[in-house]
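REQUEST FORM: STRUCTURE PREDICTION
Request ID: SP-0412
Submitted by: Lab K.M.
Chain count: 1
Length (residues): 106
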Amino acid sequence: MSWLLVIAAGLVEVVWSQSIKPTDGFTRPGPTALCVLIGALSVYLLSRAMRDLPAGLAYAMFTGIGTIGAIALGAALRHEPLGPGRAAALALILCGLVLARLTAAE
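STATUS: Completed
RESULT:
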C-alpha cells in the first residue's frame, strides 16, 4: 500500500506543478488556493507513504515521478522543448526509479 501512496503522491505532484503557472506569481486568489490545496494533498500522501518506507527512498520516488511528469506534461501541453539530452535525462531518472523500487526491502 505504501508504494501505491508514493506513486499517488508523485502523480498529484505532477498536477500541482502544472497548477503553479495559473497563479500568476500567487497573485490570483482562486488558482493560488487550488495550488496550495493540491500541494498539501501531495505532501499528505507522501507522509502516509513514509510510515512504511524510508524517508529518503519515498522522497526520491516522489520527486522523480514529479520531475518526469512535469517535464512530459510541459512538453505535451505547453510545447516546452524536449530535446534528445532532456529525453535521455528523463530515461535515466526512470531507470533510477525502477532500480530503487526493485532493490528496496520493505
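NOTES: The chain has one domain: 2-102.
Reviewed by: T.R.
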